[in-house]
Amino acid sequence: DSGVTQTPKHLITATGQRVTLRCSPRSGDLSVYWYQQSLDQGLQFLIQYYNGEERAKGNILERFSAQQFPDLHSELNLSSLELGDSALYFCASSTGTGGYTFGSGTRLTVV
Amino acid sequence: GQQVMQIPQYQHVQEGEDFTTYCNSSTTLSNIQWYKQRPGGHPVFLIQLVKSGEVKKQKRLTFQFGEAKKNSSLHITATQTTDVGTYFCAGPNFNKFYFGSGTKLNVKP
Predict the structure, then answer these.
(1) Cα dihedral sign for B23, B13, B42, A65?
(2) Of A31, A40, A43, Cβ closest to residue B43
(3) Chain A residues closer than 8 Å to B100 by CB
(4) Which residues of B touch A40 (CB under 8 A)?
(5) Is the CB of A105 less than 8 angstroms away from the CB of B96?
(6) pLDDT tens digits for B44-96?
(7) Is residue A99 a contact partner of residue B42, using CB atoms and an 8 Å limit?
(8) Which one, out of A18, A52, A92, B84, has a CA that is 20 to 30 A from the CA of B7?
(9) Residue A56 above 60 pLDDT?
(10) CB-based contacts of A110: which residues, under 8 Å, 6+ apart?
């Protein structure tokens, strides 16, 4: 257990639908990062939050949005889903220095 | 934005052989991190290198940061089947890290 909790582990949904992925960072970590990993691909940075505020945006589609709540958990919302959105979505947290601690990921399948 | 290029994309070795993956950046990096992702797993932080020319070892793994801080390598001596996975380098860009495309290592017993 890395200390970063992601739910759900698996999600199957239809095209056009909307889903919410949830992440609880490791205790004490203020930064949360979201990454997308398509099949056998690298990790694409989506967005970062620090203590409730958006800090940086990567290649995140307009159909996707995220937020970090006062208790520091974060949610990634994916809407108008397309087949190409099928991927592993990882959340990671950090103290701001040093390495990231990744959660186990949410495997999203859009059918 | 910051990009780190990683080679090779795939490497198949016989158990006991050595393995090296390389990471290159077009710009100077303040630091570089390495991660390992086992098949079906999530990336796990291995190490961070900060100083120019730095060399760090973790058992059979040797990490190097180039003198110009634009490249890095991970060398595994005498691979074992437990080394199977994808190795990523990650370079910083402001507050977040961009990951290389990874090197997928397969070790044949």
Answers:
(1) positive
(2) A43
(3) 42
(4) 104
(5) no
(6) 999 999 999 999 999 999 999 999 999 999 999 999 999 999 999 999 877 67
(7) no
(8) A92
(9) yes
(10) A13, A14, A15, A17, A81, A82, A83, A84, A85, A86
* 3-state secondary structure (DSSP) of residue B33: strand
C-alpha B30 chain-centroid distance:
16
Please say whether the beta carbons of A76 and A25 come within 8 A. Answer: no
Q: Are A61 and A81 in contact (CB under 8 A)?
A: no
Q: What is the pLDDT of residue A105?
A: 97
Q: What is the pLDDT of residue A69?
A: 97
Instruction: Give the number of residues written for chain B.
Output: 109
CA dist., res. B41 & res. B56, Å (int):
25
DSSP secondary structure string for all residues of B23-50: EEESS--S-EEEEEE-TTS-EEEEEEE-
